[in-house]
Fold this sequence. Notes:
By secondary structure, this protein is of the alpha+beta class. The chain has 12 helices and 16 strands.
Amino acid sequence: MEKIDGKNLKHTLTPEEIITAEGREITLCACVHKIKKSGGFYFVLLRTGRYVYQTVYRAGKCKGDFAALCEGAYISVSGTVKKEERAPYGFEIELTDFEILSKPKSECPFDISASHLGVSIETSMEHRFAALRNPEERAAFKICEGVTTAFSSFMQKNGFTEIHTPKLTTLNMEDKKHAFRLKYFGETAYLAQSPQLYKQAAVAFFERVFEVGSAYRADKHNSTRHLNEFISLDFEMAYAAGLHEIMAVITAFLKHAIKYLNKNYQNELQILGVTLPEIKTIPCITFNEALEILCKPKKQPDLDPTDEVKICKWAREKFKTGLIFIEKFPQKKRPFYVMGSKGNPKLTETFDLIFDGKEIASGSLRLHDYDELTVKIKRMGIDEAQYAPYLDMFLCGMPPHGGAAIGLERLVMQLLGLDDIRQATLFPRDLHHITP
Ligand code: ATP
């Protein structure tokens, strides 16, 4: 009997590790990305989970059967590391042997090794399993990983507890018409549109919580910025003194995320040709100020997508940043939030964060008083019984609190200047796609 001690775990060598092995032989498992003939030898580009390495095959120096090698094959190689300024990461590997582990059944529908795939998002989605092998196509998802890692580490450092809330639920605060409904052992359940109720409940016992989880919206959107399933970076905090304290958390997180990405994801940023924005401060204006800037009538209940584009252009010209907070929206579209105590009482303690023309986050101070909530629910003519389980948490007492949700794919889309949110979604779920 063997005992598993969990020690000496292997991983694919990084460029930094390989370069330190200059002059020595290393072994590597990878996919044959591209085979290129050059004079009397071949370049065999090998794609690992993150990098593409240049190896060189010379007949007589390598024991492997070159005729059996093909693009798309997964192989195990051994070779000697040589400094080579012209190669990616400044080295190449002179192959001494290889073994084919697995071969593809057919060719990929497009040239995976191209620096740009050059296909539409529709084609990329149709052949998703193939397209994601292209280093540029997959790079956005390493950035997604960087953002979620940065979010978790930032939140933990700031005293937030990570929670995982159910996505199958009967509690749904948002409009049920826009929720996916399903049968749950004879009962009607919904896919959670957001973790809001649960994260609110959790501030009563953890004070500060965060979650990285899926959110579902059944809207029949046909836009480049909406998905039917997306990842929501949520946080909720007790004792928030005001909206600006919540905005400060988002601003600090974004600064942290950009620093973290610049430090750890240069490989992907270079592949994508992206320089991340520098954030020092984010301007904040009220909804009414935004309407004035846009020369719009005061009656408008919300900003539309073209307003969001214009207001960010204005912010760029005035403050040299594409990010802007807009606060204190009218009650009509945001009925469940704290009303502005000072100034106009009809305005809510809510905000959106717009980034180069697209909303990437929204937040608010929530109502926490049982009586206030029940009055509001009655006034809105909502069936009270439906909210009974939700109201239970307020019966037991709740601290004043507020929070926000940041859309992961929207944030990454805007950080990377992508045209379509699907380019920041591994396997998008939208009006036309439930597969693959
Ligand atoms: P929008 O007005 O853009 O449709 P929303 O007001 O419905 O968004 P919220 O419910 O406030 O958005 O959700 C918080 C965040 O989640 C948004 O700022 C956005 O980043 C993200 N988000 C919301 N809906 C979607 C969606 N359908 N697809 C992708 N991300 C979304």
